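Just curious. Protein, please.
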Amino acid sequence: MNRPLAERLRPHTLNDYIGQTNLVGPGSILRRMIESGNVASFILWGPPGVGKTTLARIIANTTESPFYTLSAVSAGVKEVREVLEKCRADARSMFSKGRPILFIDEIHRFSKNQQDSLLGAVEDGTITLIGATTENPSFEVIRPLLSRARVYTLSPLNEEELNQLLQRAIETDEILSARNVTVEQTSALFRFAGGDGRKLLNILELLWQSTPENEPIVINDRIVTDRLQENPAAYDKNGEMHYDIISAFIKSVRGSDPDAAIYWLARMVEGGEDPEFIARRLVILSAEDIGLANPNALLLANATFDVVRKIGWPEGRIPLAECTVYLATSPKSNSAYMAIDRALAYVRQTGDLPVPLHLRNAPTSLMKEIGYGHDYKYAHDYPGNFVRQQFMPDQAGYQPFWQPCSTPAELKAAALQRQRWHTPAAPDTPADTPPPADPS
């Protein structure tokens, strides 16, 4: 009875698991792997409260494998080696049904030496490694380990999934099911949960604990907001507030409010946040939200990341503050970010369209004979280093993935593109090559 609600509701089978249907739904890649019993090492990358730990435990239960867990926050190389020895003993045991699973929470916090110590056991099949991380594994996990463990991305729970979790808690939890719970509105509840299932259950538990037993538990926007304001969480760099603060920081920079951005930066500095975590977010933000409106922003953010990695706290606060103010006061554009997302959506829709012959490389005589590279026009042989020719697949035609924003730098680039593509075509250039759309 004293266990938290989130722990009481933790599912034990895939059928009870909520969310991530692309990974664990019927016919999905992870589900097929689990049902076959042949589970390869992998890393789960996603925000908190989306089921990373739960999924690892379900896999161990389903495959009847010995299950060991380490937290990268508290475990050192010594602890890793001790667990690996236990896994080797299990692997040799005639009573062990499946390969031992080693689950490492927050694997991004493991040092290079700690990650190195895992390589041999993963390579020789002593363990199935399942790592969980909220950080981009490309930055935080060493390349040899990444080559041995596939990365699966988990998404925040959507409103339908949050509502499913809410209804399950009300109907099946041993405590809540015995109470009179009335759901009037869910907007505030879902907004504060922010796609985090554990946070939603924590809020629900707060509502239950703050409601007298002889009164119904009412869920509406006013009550949820009031109760949360009455119970503000202290800043915890390893907990939920960590993500709320960084979210406010990023949105303040994106919204061009340097004072608010510096305030949230100070909250993180005072809370002992990892300086590289902040710097990495600034690098991402500079490309996503400033982009082509001020390409120097990415250079400064990258330099800030490098400097902070070298000097750490407390001096790292100074370049972080400099970069924060610079990004907050820079012109904003997400046109490059939107362009790649449009292109990805088109690729997923159309599949692998063939590369036009004139754009293909022709390293052999046979390739040249069948037309590879034929009629390709080398841009530098033409005035202004430009010549009109087809670059998209034949079936694609013209696709305006990049749609420039109304910032001076992008308007200038768009004007140059119109000047290039609106000029008369060369005699041997396809006449139907369309020009880019006018951004105005």
Remarks:
- The mean pLDDT is 81.
- Strands lie at 42-45, 67-71, 101-105, 128-133, 150-153, 181-183, 217-219.
